[in-house]
Design a protein that fits this description.
This protein is 32% helix and 24% strand. By secondary structure, it is α+β, with helices and mostly antiparallel strands. Helix 1 crosses helix 2. It is elongated and about 70 Å long.
């Protein structure tokens, strides 16, 4: 039985995991999978999909998350300016960290992929 594409029988989740395990060469009983999931308090797939979402994660951790990005702008004077900014996830406020002509490897506006001290 299904409701809008969601499977209502939790045992189907166990048999799906069992089938994937078998495809990888491991034979595990559906009852064993159910026991492992219940022991670790992992709900069946339809319930997991609504509890563990990216949106729920962001809301739970918005107070401590800051995203940083880096891009460049080509000016009319044919010079390139690098811009580094951070976004406070909770307030969505953008903080300009700097716009050096050439980003320094140890500065707040270091190029993507470079690590501090390199």
């Amino acid at each position: 039985m299904s409701n809008g594409g969601q499977v209502l029988e939790p045992y189907r989740d166990y048999t799906r995991i069992q089938g994937e395990s078998r495809r990888l060469g491991h034979r595990v009983a559906a009852a064993t999978i159910r026991k492992i999931l219940r022991t670790n308090r992992i709900p069946p797939a339809p319930q997991r999909a609504t509890v563990h979402t990216w949106r729920a994660f962001l809301r739970a951790h918005a107070e401590t998350l800051v995203a940083r990005d880096f891009f460049h702008v080509d000016l009319v004077s044919l010079t390139r300016v690098h811009v580094c900014f951070a976004i406070d996830v909770r307030t969505r406020f953008v903080h300009l960290l700097g716009s050096p002509r050439i980003p320094q490897p140890n500065g707040p506006c270091r190029p993507p992929g470079s690590s501090p001290g390199r």
